[in-house]
Design goal:
With 753 residues, this protein is an alpha+beta fold.
């Protein structure tokens, strides 16, 4: 198959097509012998070009892939310590092997693959990957790292074939692939048990499949058209199932699809029936398939994690009761006054446990804080007491059991501090339109705003509907004086509230507002029999799915910078394309093997310039278009610009700008998917600028020389900074020559300056 851009024709062109399309001048027709001779020469030229193209298609991807594997896997086991976020993701992989439920901010696919790598390496999941610790002998961490490195290595052939699909010349395809191979940041992170290489792989493969789908746009509904459409959706689903950052590449594909459907709408040759089919096909391939992949990953996640673990409390109480080895749902089935120690959980998405601690509100009432907290804690324990004005129930004086009933009035008292759950006409700390909820007084000190009415709203099972039962009873808690309802607002308190959830008393709340719904999660009472024979109903998968994703987002939103604490590895988004900072990935001592996460200056700095140039270029073209000037009249040139420049620029912006505006803490590795599209834009400019030189023989040599020189600089730059990727042994002073900028923490730690 002839090369697309080298010939100037589409990939579908055959040798005969090229001969047929050759312009025949008048002079040739005057001499049939010369014509036949020229035609034969052209045929031989095309045949030779075809042979070279076939060789390029087979041999070069193999060579490039081997080089990519070398840069990612060379000395991969040199550091036998848990490096950087291996502490997190290795531990999560262990949970899958132990089948213990955990909680994390990321979707499960990447961590399930980490668990799979451990299983294939013969690891049983018994270790929790403590940060900086030496790997024990029974863990083949090298095999686990190699598994992850394969994802980073496979980005190399994908980059090669993407370059071909979007219309790069052969030289630019090679350049783009070399830029991906010899990028220090890719080679560094590709060595470790992390999610970043998997995210990069599925992002790269998504754009590759989109580019191949784009080449099939003139053959709609063909087998290959359907293949690349479905593969695009499959990879999009995998990308978002590794990290929610996958939403950015989904947005790129979505915008491309909208543009394509808009163009089809203006095409009069397309009937309404065909146009509707185009919509249905894309809904299936780009919406239904990714959603199904995303849901399937969570279904497998729930099925694998069947044992109780550290993440139980983020899930609904009934779900926790279904886990093996859980304490939830194991207590007595009826709640008694005074003697029952309970924890109370909110039923809103992201709902947490009612909590209090000795710290007061810094403003407002300045009484003891009441919050919601997502994890099991002794400060989550409460008990019911008789209302204010009535003699309190005490275990010493009362031998009879008084069960808590719906419709009755009680006090809720915090077990550790002995204070009453209280509200008053004081604005809540965040939700100023609602009442503050605090812990106040004691068993004797207080007022009638300590009294709350228990309203049962739903009973699951066949137990006494008038009584309060753990897990199976949903109830609301109404203040007897103010008439407001205890609720989780969904907002988080500042640092003085330890970023825990705000609790308010809602003045106006509908009965179906789940923020006001609560259930008893744990129950202890030595005076009552255990309800061991009770069978809890199974929870809905979609309910569990929504709850877990809500908890993930809540946890992610809580990852905000702490102004009172210096984070030596955190950075700002502007520092990534400028290479202003790097990241120390491990212990920085003379005896350790040290890794430094930093992009290659030979590729990152030029790519950042190329992105800026393209932004100006797009603005210029837009202004010309507004003035009704013809832009990109050549269809081949226009197609290359769209897939090699415009959509990569859009992808760059969509992957980069969210980190500019978001409030959560960010790190340099967040730039890795963004960098891929910057490298593509850089390759586009190399292709666009140098192809104009090829009109003359001297220009061809000049163009070839430019590629050779810059490619050599990229490769030399990689090996110059290779200690960052392959590991630095010995004193850090030996590597002081690598600190081109004072902000690169090679020798000196900026925290100490």
């Amino acid at each position: 198959m002839p090369y697309r851009v080298a010939t100037g024709y589409s990939e579908k062109s055959t040798d005969d097509d090229l001969i047929w399309r050759r312009p025949i001048v008048k002079e040739e027709l005057e001499d049939a012998d010369n014509f036949l001779k020229d035609d034969a020469e052209l045929y031989d030229k095309v045949k030779n070009e075809s042979a070279v193209s076939h060789l390029d298609t087979i041999v070069m991807p193999i060579i490039f892939t081997v080089l990519g594997m070398f840069t990612r896997m060379y000395k991969i086991g040199r550091n036998n310590h848990v490096v950087w976020d291996e502490a997190h993701f290795g531990k999560f992989g262990s949970y899958y092997l132990r089948h213990e439920f955990y909680h994390d901010v990321h979707p499960p696919l990447g961590k399930m693959l980490v668990g799979l790598s451990g299983y294939l390496a013969g690891y049983n999941g018994s270790w929790d990957f403590p940060s900086g610790e030496v790997y024990p002998d029974y863990i083949d961490y090298v095999k686990m790292r190699l598994f992850q490195a394969m994802f980073s290595s496979l980005c190399v052939p994908l980059a090669y074939f993407t370059g071909r699909a979007i219309g790069f010349s052969r030289l630019s395809v090679w350049l783009f692939t070399i830029l991906v191979i010899f990028e220090n940041s890719y080679a560094t992170l590709g060595k470790f048990i992390l999610l970043d290489s998997m995210l990069l792989f599925f992002t790269v493969s998504s754009y590759f499949c989109l580019a191949k789908f784009h080449t099939m746009r003139k053959s709609p509904f063909s087998a290959r058209w359907w293949l690349w459409l479905c593969l695009t959706g499959l990879n999009l689903g995998c990308a978002i199932s590794v990290k929610m950052v996958g939403l950015f590449i989904i947005s790129v594909v979505g915008i491309y699809t909208i543009g394509e459907l808009w163009n089809l709408l203006s095409d009069r040759s397309v009937s309404w029936k065909v146009y509707v089919n185009h919509w249905l096909a894309r809904i299936f391939g780009l919406i239904i398939i990714p959603v199904c992949v995303f849901l399937l990953c969570f279904k497998i996640h729930f099925d694998l994690l069947s044992n109780s673990g550290p993440g139980d409390s983020t899930m609904p109480s009934l779900f926790q009761a279904s886990l093996n080895g859980t304490k939830v749902g194991k207590g007595p089935r009826d709640v008694a006054l005074g003697s029952s120690i309970i924890s109370i959980k909110n039923q809103a998405l992201g709902g947490a446990l009612l909590h209090s601690h000795v710290q007061p509100f810094p403003e407002g009432s300045e009484q003891q804080q009441v919050t919601v907290y997502g994890y099991s804690d002794a400060n989550n324990e409460w008990f019911f007491q008789r209302i204010r004005g009535v003699e309190p129930w005490t275990d010493a004086e009362n031998k009879t059991i008084e069960f808590v009933k719906g419709g009755e009035m009680y006090r809720l008292m915090h077990r550790l501090t002995g204070k009453n759950l209280h509200t008053h006409e004081v604005p809540a700390p965040i939700s100023k339109s609602e009442y503050e909820v605090s812990a106040y007084g004691d068993v004797d000190l207080g007022d009638y705003k300590d009294n709350w009415i228990i309203e049962i709203v739903e009973q699951v099972g066949e137990e006494d509907p008038t009584l309060l039962h753990p897990l199976s009873t949903s109830f609301r808690i109404k203040n007897s004086i103010l008439g407001c309802y205890l609720a989780q607002s969904g907002k988080h308190l500042p640092e003085w509230g330890f970023r825990q959830g705000e609790v308010v008393c809602l003045k106006h709340a509908s009965k179906r507002d789940k923020r006001t719904w609560w259930n008893i999660e744990t129950h202890e009472n030595e005076r009552l029999p255990q309800g061991e024979d009770f069978v809890y109903p199974k929870t809905s998968f979609f309910r569990n799915f929504m709850q877990l994703n809500s908890a993930m987002m809540a946890t992610n939103n809580a990852l905000v910078p702490n102004p009172e604490k210096f984070d030596g590895i955190a950075s700002s988004a502007w520092q990534w394309p400028t290479l202003n900072v790097g990241v120390r990935l491990c212990e920085w001592s003379e005896k350790s093997i040290k890794y430094f996460l930093l992009g290659s200056p030979a590729s990152v700095w030029p790519s950042s310039i190329a992105v800026c140039a393209l932004i100006i270029h797009v603005i210029f073209l837009t202004l010309k278009w507004q003035r009704q000037c013809v832009i990109l009249s050549d269809p081949v040139e226009r197609d290359v610009f769209v897939m090699a420049a415009f959509y990569p620029l859009l992808a760059w912006l969509l992957h980069y700008m969210p980190f500019v505006v978001m409030s959560r803490v960010v790190y340099a590795h967040h730039y890795l998917p963004t960098l891929y599209f910057a490298l593509m834009i850089l390759s586009y400019y190399f292709d666009m600028i140098t192809k104009r030189w090829a009109t003359r023989n001297t220009g061809k040599f000049l163009r070839l020389g430019a590629y050779i020189v810059y490619g050599s600089i990229v490769i030399a730059g990689f090996f110059y900074f290779s200690p960052f990727s392959f590991g630095m042994d010995g004193p850090v002073e030996d590597y002081a020559y690598l600190a081109w900028l004072p902000t690169w923490q090679i020798v000196e730690d900026i925290r100490n300056t």
